[in-house]
Design brief:
Number of domains: 1
Shape: elongated
Helix content: over 70%
Strand content: under 5%
Number of strands: 0
């Protein structure tokens, strides 16, 4: 997000090259996602509505609903605002994704504890059965 916001802020890079640069050096699904956005933007019959959801599905990128909504607001409406408005959209999307990341991290801690308890319980049950 920071890379894209910087590009928009200082160079006013068009959407397709911006997405290609954002995808460089990223892992599989993320790379496919950004390249898919660039490919969609280069089509002659480019339709922004629903683009993010389509590309996300093509790239097999599984995102929580709120993360997908934040990305849809950013990418499906890209170019509909002036530079400052577009930068504001980047900040809003980044804040939403940060919030969601923290929330998911807290949930993961609880799930890990649950798995540990289940593992200990299963181990104890096997030990009792063997004895």
């Amino acid at each position: 997000m920071e890379l894209m916001a910087g590009e928009v802020s200082f160079a006013a890079t068009p959407f397709a090259p911006l997405c290609r640069r954002a995808g460089e050096g990223r892992s599989g699904a993320v790379h496919k996602f950004f390249n898919g956005l660039a490919r969609e933007a280069e089509k002659p019959d480019f339709a922004q509505a629903g683009m993010t959801r389509r590309v996300c599905a093509e790239a097999a990128l599984s995102l929580p609903k709120s993360a997908l909504s934040a990305l849809e607001r950013l990418f499906d409406g890209f170019g509909c605002f002036d530079r400052e408005g577009q930068l504001r959209q980047f900040r809003l999307a980044a804040a939403e994704l940060e919030r969601l990341s923290g929330e998911l991290s807290r949930q993961m801690e609880g799930r890990c504890r649950t798995c540990e308890v289940l593992g200990l319980t299963a181990g104890t049950a096997v030990l009792v059965m063997v004895l």
